Amino acid sequence: MIVDSNLTEENQVVILDSTSYCLMALGRLEEAVELRKTEVDLSSRLKNWEFAAGAARNLVDLYLYLGLVDKAYSIAQEAIKYASFSEDVHSQIVSQSYFATVLYSKGRFDEALVNFEQAEQLDREDYLRSSLRGYRYCTLLLDRAKDKEALKSLSTQESLQSITKKSDHLISIALDYVTLARACFSLNEIDQSEQYFQLAIQSSQKAGKMNDAPLFYLYRADFYLTQNQLDLALADLNSAWDIIERCSMKLYQIDYLLIHGRYSLVTKDFDTALNHYIKAKQLIQETGYHLRDAELDLFAAKLRQDCGEEYRSTNTDLYAKTADDYLQKAKQRIADIGQWGLLRVIERDFPSSS
Q: What CATH number does the domain located at 10-107+114-121 have?
């Protein structure tokens, strides 16, 4: 897209911002990237630091969706720099939380937590907890939650009310519901969890933003799979995949492969499960999405547990280790980064080892 050169550069920035936002919402992510990059460059040249920071943050989102984690890391640092130049506290809070989100995606939990906490210290109006970035903060807290008390702090009705009263942003509300649903599920409050998942999907559908939609379907599919509601799980997986494939969303593709891989094991479709493992492993290495390293090893442990020796000749890499080898590797990764929430997955899927 070429912006009319007769427009002032300030107006060109506005046009670039609006157009890239619309393309992003439509799932046309690769087209949106070039516009955002141009917007960042133009805004920084004009020393419009607030716009430059905002454009850089949106570029972070695009890079993450597309699986370009290292690029997201670099531009997130740029967003922090531009926000500091702007001297706008709100922009500094959001930019710091975007950088934390990238660190989280890389599986660098301690650094992510430090950056989220730094953003929270700047926050005097609880913006972070009632926003899109606040969802990632809560997800990190869920991943690090070791006991029921920590989970309960993320699953109370008071928490929901305090958030939704402050926001009419449908995606933010949908993400709040997802956080509540996952926390309730971890507390074995199944009916409440399912109710929150339904509310999350409803809010997401009302928002109509394609770039956010796969997340909701994937989480609910994972929930249905754990409840052995296989038809519902597959329906949500298919809904997610339609968008993921169309929009080239590589990080969500990894999430899909791991969940659909477990579904394939349950339905005894071992060929698909094995292919999903190979592809997920490849994509994690390509993208740097090391948040999923331990989950990949847990999936490998299930594969080695469930797939017979007849698959050894075509999957020599997987069969180089035993199920227990993969399980111990996952446990070590969990301990190294503090991803304690996965211990609940081990208790569920490998009860004899916990």
A: 1.25.40.10
